[in-house]
Amino acid sequence: MPRPILRLDDRYDDGEFEGGDLGTASSVLSSSIFSSSSNASSSSSPRTPKKGFALPALRKHVSRRKSSLDQLQIPSPSSPDLTNTKIAKLGRPQLTRSATLPKVPHLQNRSDKLRAELEALEVDSALLEKIRRWILGIAIVNFDIDEGPMVDGVFPPLVLFPKESENIAFSSFPDSLQFDQGFQIHSFRIRGEKIAVSSEKRPANIDEFMYGFSYFTQKRDSTLKRGYEQRSVVILTSHPYPAFFSIILSIFGPMFQEHGTPMLEAACHNIAMWPDPTPGTVLEIGFLGTVLQVEIPHSGNDAQQIRATVFKKNDFDPKLHILASAPPFNPPPILLFEASLSHLWSIWECVVLCEPILLFGTSPAQTSQAAWWFRDILRPIPLAGDIRPYFTIHDTDHTLLINKLPPKPGLILGVTNPYFDRSCSHWPHLLSLGRYIPPNTATKTSLTTATPGPPPGWTTKLHKRYISKDRALLKQLEDACRGSEQQKIEAYLHTLIPTPTEIAQIERKMGKGDTSPKSSLRLKPFHSANFFLSLKSHGSTLPFRSSSKRLEFYERWLKTPAFGLWLAEQETIVQDVLHDNINKDNQGRNTPQSGFKS
Amino acid sequence: MADAASGSTDKSVQVKLVLLGEAAVGKSSVVLRFVSDEFQANKEPTIGAAFLTQKCRLEDRVLRYEIWDTAGQERFHSLAPMYYRNAQAAVVVYDITKASSLDKAKSWVKELQRQANPNIVIALAGNKLDLVQPSTSQSGTPSSESEDEADDATATPGETPSSPGEPESLRQVPRDEAQAYATEAGLLFFETSAKTGEGIVDIFTEIAKKIPIEHILAAGGGVRRPGAPGGRSGNAQEGAVNLEENANKPKDACNC
């Protein structure tokens, strides 16, 4: 298998980084497509504590130590002088390294230190159980110069099989260079092991998939051979709540970078205090000094849209009011689709008709955002296909999903590695994400154009649009793309294109079924002939280009696996209601009997 | 505990409040007394910070305290700014039977005055008053022997009865001294006992009176949740706030 395309080459040796010259680091970088070395002078050393956080802590620590020493009068050798050790740590390495000595052991030490710190943390089983209601664990992934990204530890402790661990590690890192220094949030969905019996180290699962929400950071660090520290903090969970976990990560990620293990502990203890993630509830959640309102969906297919929310639209602040299963707000989805705005109607049709789509983006943040957005516009229709917000060549399912065969219906695959452009060349639909870039723009945005891979836009081999474009809406979207951030969010709030609620009106057309317990205990069987009759007489809210197009579209849709699932789901809902009624009925009858017995 | 979902409909003014202080002075016990009117003898140390809420009625207003009960342990010290950022109120707790805990409290006050929201209302609370009251049938062992214990020592010491004759000898921080400091630093001051409940509600009531509610409301925040506490987007300051004393008004205890 090809290696990931990491352009931070490992080709320089220690000598180049002796002294940790930022200029050297940026000169190495300048060989790549980035020219952001201008940041170098303004950025402070990674070890310089930020004002307001680490500094007062250090001062407090020192002053406390002093006062206790004053009281004791005797300086104890067992209580080391903090200030001295700090100075020693901050100083540059004094030893001259030779090629025969182990090269820069810092990373190894760092990973070891983290592991030791994580192992030292205590979690009792009651606490663990509470944390596990929400997350499996938080994994710390560091880049190892020999092995690539590696999971250094998970807290609370979670057993991962070697393949899972490798999959998490690679999925949590972008497989191409994103920026010089900075962070990025993305998500992924991977297949793990099926766990039948719960244990403290690994809870049982309903299906073997797990979701990862990753906060990736990259910063210059001259003490590392690579010249950079690259790390991901990954929330592993069985809940597909992208909006929610992205917000949680955006709070936790930077704090963890700054404070390390105590932060991890603090976060998990907060999580343990959260109320249960009961479907259909609005929860108030306190997390690391911030209070969030979170709306938990009734089910995975619950359309959590702004207009249907309990939150008042005027007061709506996407940073504080979270529709857990919605796509995150960043990057603004409208920008991802800018190059394909006029095709949004086709894209929507393809998503609804369970067509497999390859999502190509320049960053995992883009692809995962778009994938979740696709998932969202499909609601309330169940997801019939596999969805991978960010998929790497290292994924254990790589050969299963990427081969010569036609891709499976409904598969939505988010990739950033140009390799997929070739290996998926037989796929019917490709959406390359990103902004439309006029040929002669400033050099700053040339990043996107310079990136290998298909240029932003929608490419389809087969699909011909059924519904008419809404020209007015298209104009509005185009304006929003050029407008302010607020307008971009507005465009999102108003939903870019028709939602499948229109499709869901089929429910009405096919008849609700007889819910009276006296008749047969089933939903009236679905007859496509009746459905089409009803469609003919009642019409459709979707603006089809012609009535024959309409017929064609629905004929196709009724054959999709998603429709089958949706139908089965309706049947289950009706059955549940009926059973409840029968149970109530029986209870009513049983009560006097039981009274009689006693 | 956190009255989760019920919070989504009320029209209360949100007040972010943070508790700070040395380990084992009884911060969590103060909160537990205020929120649940309970007391637990050997509470385990807080990790990071716990989040609790409590509603308070003050005259015709309803305040909703969002309480961040921080860990006193030194290793969590650097996380504190996260919790006091945008807080409208702080309760800095010390243990009246442990002189060094007042020093720690003073350093917290300094940090708050320098780095927190400039309009923050700070209350100083000397806890464990029950240990120095002769009237109490139960009084605990002095905590002086635990003075050099590690930071993670848990809250109130054991329950062994001491000689009823001179319980005041356990006191290491004279009330006058703390009061004088509080006045000088512009803090509300209370001596409290989380164990008996004495003085606890008063802290939150007096804070409620001193909080510039009108300003929170005028800033468009407070009611429900739209970025109320000082605003996350930099509108933290509402300029010079008129902290008028309501001391002469009829006492309105918090309705918990």
TrEMBL record, chain A:
Cellular component terms, GO, for this chain's entry? recycling endosome
Q: Where is this region: Disordered?
A: 1-23, 65-85
Keyword set, alphabetical order? Coiled coil
Compositional bias per record (Polar residues), positions renumbered to this chain:
69-85
Q: List where this protein forms a coiled coil.
A: 104-131
To which protein family does this belong?
A: Belongs to the DENND6 family.
Q: What is this protein called?
A: Family with sequence similarity member b
What organism is listed for this UniProt entry? Answer: Lentinula edodes (Shiitake mushroom)
Q: Where is the UDENN domain?
A: 136-568
The yes or no answer to whether the keyword Iron is present is no
Task: Give start-end positions of Basic and acidic residues composition bias.
Answer: 1-10
MF GO annotations: guanyl-nucleotide exchange factor activity
Q: InterPro entries given for it? A: DENND6, Tripartite_DENN
TrEMBL record, chain B:
Residue ranges of the region described as Disordered: 132-173, 224-256
Compositionally biased region (Basic and acidic residues)? 246-256
Domain of life (superkingdom): Eukaryota
Q: Which UniProt keywords apply?
A: Nucleotide-binding
**Skewed-composition ranges (Gly residues):** 224-233
Where in the sequence does UniProt note compositional bias of the Low complexity kind?
Answer: 133-144, 156-167
Name any one Pfam family assigned in the record: Ras
Q: Where is the signal peptide?
A: none
InterPro entries hit by this protein: P-loop_NTPase, Small_GTP-bd, Small_GTPase
Q: Which GO terms describe its molecular function?
A: GTP binding; GTPase activity
The molecule here is called Gtp-binding protein ypt5
